[in-house]
Amino acid sequence: MMDRQAIVAKVTRALTGEPAAFAVRNARKIDAQGIDGHFWAVAGPDGTIAATGTRDGDFEAACRAAGLDPASGAVVDAAGRILTPGYVDIHAHGSWEHSFDDGPDGIDVARAGHAVHGTTRQVLSLITNPVDVMCENLRNVRAKMDERPDVLGSHLEGPFLALARKGAHDPACLKAPVPQIVDRMLEAADGSLRQITIAPELPHGISAIRQFAAAGTVPAVGHCDADYATARRAFDAGAGIMTHMFNAMNGLHHREPGPIPAAVEDPRVTIELINDGFHVQDPMLRMGVGFAPHRLAFVTDAMAATDCPDGPYKLGALDVNVVDGHARLVSNGAIAGSTLLLEEAVRRAVTVLGMSPADAVEAATLTPARTFGFDRPNAVTGAPLGLVAPGFAADMLLTDPATWTVEQVWCAGRKLK
Fold first, then answer.
1. Residue 325 annotated as binding?
2. Which of 55, 123, 232, 398 has an alpha carbon within 20 to 30 A of 318's alpha carbon?
3. For 339, how many CA atoms within 13 A lie in the half-sphere containing its CB?
4. Three-state DSSP class for 279?
5. Residue limits of the Amidohydrolase-related domain (predicted)?
6. Can you spell out the DSSP letters for 297-345?
């Protein structure tokens, strides 16, 4: 296998280059629309899926219509492997010893670490820092969106978090979401801020949710101590996401229901879940995946140590130690993000939690895409994301059916692995 520096260069070169026509045949397609055997898909030179089907007689004609020789090397025989849409992670901080807060080069490295494991598109999560630093990081993400199609925008996890539920965020940098700071963040993001996590019970919390929502950002309820009524007010004000359900929030209680039932009851809300068996243990995961069918989005909350050996790392300015793949703050032992990949989250969903393959894939593809309107034509991705279907982006994965290991990856018609 190539060393990581070479992989980063290859992935970056592909993503900043042009798409090319390709085709996959003899696959077992799994997406939110179900499972089809003996499946084929043809991607055109524009980076979108031109045609799909299960009849051999239609395959060659579809290839030629896309300007592709059916006998060329651009046609991949899947030999029964699983074909899925590319994974979409809407909450991750980094990988391969780099975070998305580490500037343009750090973004390239961290994205490559996720891309080769099948995450073709990513909302880049930025940790709590001084506001000036967070605004500069927002500008870096915005610039990357102009260079490559895999960066969907940014997610600010902070600084508008409850002190008691701050997790691994620097308490010295936490703020109330006053309008002036909201304006600065929106200006720095220049239309690229997809999501912001807010504790709605903070002073100005509900008004900030309205302010962000009016600007096209999807506020998320999380890192909070909100009661049920306050969470309901937040969702009615425009919040559309629950940040990593169960983690960094008051839990379920029979007389104090808290924010989780408010999210579960509201069909407008996408519910994030970290399916690693550590942030949330398997009995609670099994219960959680049944709470809101078709509204569950697997996220990784992955930090810089993802896909790396155990040892010392940084999360923003805070020291983290990773033991047995689990990241904790050195200062107080608090969980400090994860080392999860969506590839592993999907595998666990099927092999450990007992989810149907179509539902597991949906939670890593169509549902997160739908959260921001990326499941239909839009100004950010152009073609919709989340299905292996004509007109959708040519984001596809070939996966080993025995291990759910991602073997080949395309993003917008670019071959990444």
1. no
2. 123
3. 20
4. coil
5. 82-401
6. EEE--B-TTTTS-SEEEEETTEEEEEETTEEEETTT--B--B---HHHH
Q: How far apart are the first and last CA of the chain?
A: 11
User: Hey, where are the domains in the chain?
Assistant: 4-84+386-415, 87-371
Say which of 102, 225, 266, 301 is annotated catalytic.
301
The reply to whether 268 sits in an annotated binding site is no
Rounded distance, CA 349 to CA 191, Å? 34
Q: Which structure tokens are listed for 399? A: 């996966």
CATH topology agreement for domains 4-84+386-415 and 87-371: no
Give 313's pLDDT tier (boundaries 50, 70, 90): confident
Q: Which of 105, 86, 181, 178 is nearest to 413 (CA)?
A: 86
Tell me how far CA of residue 166 lies from CA of 57, 177, 236, in angstroms: 58, 15, 24
- Residue 333 backbone phi and psi in degrees, to 5: 80, 5
Q: Is 301 one of the catalytic residues?
A: yes
pLDDT digits (tens, 9 = 90+) for 126-165: 999 999 999 999 999 999 999 999 999 999 999 999 999 9
77 within 8 A of 25, measured Cβ to Cβ: yes
Res. 408 pLDDT band, cuts 50 70 90: very high
The answer to whether 253 is annotated as binding is no
In CATH terms, the fold of domain 87-371 is TIM Barrel (3.20.20)
So what's the pLDDT on residue 3? 92
> Does residue 248 have a known ligand-binding role?
yes
Q: Is 337 annotated as a binding residue?
A: yes
In contact, 285 and 273? CB cutoff 8 Å: yes
Determine whether the annotation assigns residue 336 to a binding site: yes
Residue 172: CB atoms within 10 Å: 9
From CA 236, how far away is CA 415, in angstroms rounded? 42
Give the position of tokens 């006998």: 71
> What is d(CA 124, CA 173) in angstroms, rounded to the nearest whole number?
20
Contact 197, 224 (CB under 8 A): no
